[in-house]
Amino acid sequence: MPSTEDTSVHQERPVVRPTREDEISAAGSELIGGPAGRWARLGSGPLTPVRVIALVAIGMFALGMVQKVPCYDWAWFRGTSSQYTHACYSDIPHLYLGRGFADGLVPYVDRLGGDMAYLEYPVLTGLFMQIASWLTLTPSTDPMQQREQMYWMVNAGMLMICAVIIAVCVARTHRRRPWDGLLVALAPALALTATINWDLLAVALTAAAMLMWSRGRALAFGILIGLATAAKLYPVLLLGPLLVLCWRAGTWREFGRALFGAAASWLLVNLPVMLYAPEGWKKFYTFSQERQIDYGSFWLVITQRTGKPIDVGTVNTASVLLMIVLCAGIAGLALTARHRPRFAQLAFLVVAAFILTNKVYSPQYVLWLIPLAVLARPRWRDFLVWQACEVMYFLGIWFYLAYTTSGDKHQGLPQEGYQVAIALHLLGTLYLCALVVRDILRPDRDPVRRDGSDDPSGGVLDGAPDTVVLGQPAHHPARNAAPAVRGPRVEWGTAGGAPSD
């Protein structure tokens, strides 16, 4: 039984200083005066970690907007390869006209001209796009270029709010690690891809859901996951690892609340459109099924290298089977690991598996993984290695499109070069996945657990005893905890569970 003195240490755990435990963070801090000293007052005064992170997120987002200036001024509207050579392409201005928002058409209700009969986005994203069109107050008599520019600016402002929410939620999810949110705020791929599409809406709702779960609010978590799934499909995947972890810990009531909240909020958003405009509502799902092999996937590399097309039905089936196999492996890892994995670790692995096996990888899909990667493995070196791979892919796809649209000039990156960019994206993601798996098998290498913590962002899972462990006796986190490997050693709390934050 630990002493009273030990218990008081747990209750007063200080905020983790990244410059004291991360060599890359310490080296980078030299730009602003060096690592925090012994008498540094972190979290006090007007510049708290959360406020600093919010300001940095706004600054980085603004830099990303500046990077789009060549397209904003002229490249979007000339319809040439210039928007690719300047790496500033965005769907937003093109779809303002192409999906009927400029003409006042109602998403999912009014038919569009051409091959795209209805808007091919989930309902909540369609609502986001519609609200932005309402806020685009330029008169219909203005030139279309000005209207598209204003529509992009309105969307950029709304997406900036989403980006700040993501960074702040990550900063608050791990109570003792608020500075991890700086990884999100400074992520180069976030700045570059934030305004390509509307993915940040779903990412913000997912990040807020993770924060709610870390606070033990299972119903709020479920509601937010349901709303996120109504904006993009991938957030529903988080219910899978949560199911496995709640099974292992025996916390079925909390999982039931989360599942109920997710189903209820998703239905609340989707049911009116399903009933009033069923053909428009199902367009997103039929489009996803019928979509051919597209940019960024290893399926594209296979078809390009072999010169043989693959039937879309075959790819759909193979992708689903691969995803099932990977999810089964992740579930097996979660149920057999000596120490129960953290929720963020499994959430990252599942979404990464979906991205790796999918038949398309748009450059903005990296946004799905950024907050999960930070929560799963908050280490600057590994995060930046992965981000470097994603930035190379970001440049690779635009230069490849420039090559394919520049005619006889062949201005850009040829097919073989683009395949290298795809390989870098795949290898970078696999590298981060391998590190997360290693952390699960060896908790002493996990940056979050180095002080003896169990799952600080796991809500009811944090410190909960195991009830189901395959292949070995069930263990209690108080006996399972990885010992601290650097800095002052902090023991676990009483036998009743992990200490509070």
From TrEMBL:
Residues 473-484 have a biased composition (Low complexity). It is a multi-pass membrane protein. InterPro entries: GT87 (IPR018584), UCP010361 (IPR016570). The keyword Zinc-finger does not apply. The chain crosses the membrane at residues 48-66, 118-137, 149-170, 182-213, 219-246, 258-277, 318-336, 343-363, 383-405. Coiled coil: none annotated. Keywords: Cell membrane, Membrane, Transferase, Transmembrane, Transmembrane helix. Its main location: membrane. Residues 1-22, 446-501 are annotated as: Disordered. Residues 7-22 have a biased composition (Basic and acidic residues). The keyword Flavoprotein does not apply. It is found in: Cell membrane. It holds the Pfam family GT87. Belongs to the glycosyltransferase 87 family. This is Membrane protein. It comes from Streptomyces clavifer.
